[in-house]
Amino acid sequence: MRTIRFLVVFLILISAAAAGERPDALRKSAERGDAKAQCNLGRVYYVGQGVAKNPVEAVKWFRRSAEQDNAEAQFNLGIAYWFGEGVIKDPVEAVNWYRKAAEQGSAKAQFNLGCAYGAGVGVIKDSFEAVNWYRKAADQGIASAQYCMGIAYWLGEGARKDPAEALAWLNVASAFGSEPARAWRESLEKDFSRAQIEAATRRARELMETVRK
């Protein structure tokens, strides 16, 4: 299970700033204290969009924005600490920033926080707490979190062992585009009866309604 979680944590990375946002214009706004501009300027430096790639400069701007409670910047700062880019690698500090963003409702941060608890990196391993954060992210449409929910129910790790619920979550994750979930679902369905598959499909529809809301 640990291997699976390390694979999925890499799926969510920092994206570039929105098209049309020039670095010089972002810097002016960032220097005036605009938290969103600071976060976007950090992204620009992190990926090298219109400027030379500079993770250290990126972290500087992420931190200024994060300290103003910008959830996206807090998540990005967590990524930087997790991978040791622009700052000394520190999983504990990464988890600290993921948690701040997760508590503000960031689905990406909720997922990565779940991964940290699931793997026991940066925090004491706690499968139940991992599932708690996976569920929050899953309800916001994060396919990788939905996949992890399926695995948790299948293995009975952090949740009661429930093959039917596992299949339902894998159905949901597949619908949201998770290829690993689709592969697992197809493999598991061979051991399910037609009635069980139909029941899992109905349960998946119920879960999908929750996600949509």
Question: In short, what is this structure?
Answer:
The chain is mainly α. The protein has 2 domains: 27-104, Tetratricopeptide repeat domain (Serine Threonine Protein Phosphatase 5, Tetratricopeptide repeat, Alpha Horseshoe), CATH 1.25.40; 115-213, Alpha Horseshoe (Serine Threonine Protein Phosphatase 5, Tetratricopeptide repeat), CATH 1.25.40.
Question: What does this protein look like?
Answer:
It is a single chain. By secondary structure, the chain is mostly helical. It has two domains: 27-104, Tetratricopeptide repeat domain (Serine Threonine Protein Phosphatase 5, Tetratricopeptide repeat, Alpha Horseshoe); 115-213, Tetratricopeptide repeat domain (Serine Threonine Protein Phosphatase 5, Tetratricopeptide repeat, Alpha Horseshoe). The chain is 69% helix and 0% strand. Helix 5 (71-83) runs antiparallel to helix 6. It is elongated, with a radius of gyration of 19 Å. The relative contact order is 0.09.
